[in-house]
Amino acid sequence: MANSPTTFRGEPAGPDGPDWDHAASLHRADDGGGVLGDFKAIRHGTIAELVALVMALPETDRSRYAVIKEGARQLTHKEIAELAARPDFPGRQE
């Protein structure tokens, strides 16, 4: 069950929240996705790694990117910021 699709709008994956190790890819938000969307990926990694990467960008650049959860859906820059703000986010910096 470690890689089962989840939602992030206040609905945890289970008792431990989101699966931060779920496979994902980083894309330009306007790349169009589609059947060949995986070939347009900028980087592959876990959700935690890619959320941290986007949040390390200047705030003005973050809206240019999206994280696509493998087997699920696209996370917008607003959802990425929400994930980064969670107290259980592995890359959280106080």
The major beta sheet can be summarized as: 4 strands, antiparallel
Order of strands in the sheet with most strands: 2-1-3-4
- What characteristic shape results from the CA principal axes? globular
What share of residues are in beta strands?
15-25%
Mean pLDDT level: 81
Helix percent band: 10-25%
Distance between the amino and carboxyl termini: 30 Å
Order of helices and strands: EEHEEH
Rg over CA atoms: 13 Å
Catalogue the unreliable spans. Answer: 1-5
DSSP summary, beta strand count: 4
Number of H/I helices: 2
Structural class: alpha+beta
Summarize the structure.
The chain is an alpha+beta fold. 19% of the residues lie in helices and 18% in strands.
Describe the protein in words:
It is a single chain. With 94 residues, the protein is an alpha+beta fold. The protein has two helices and four strands. A hairpin with a 4-residue loop joins β3 (65-69) and β4 (74-75). The chain is globular and about 35 Å long. The termini are far apart.
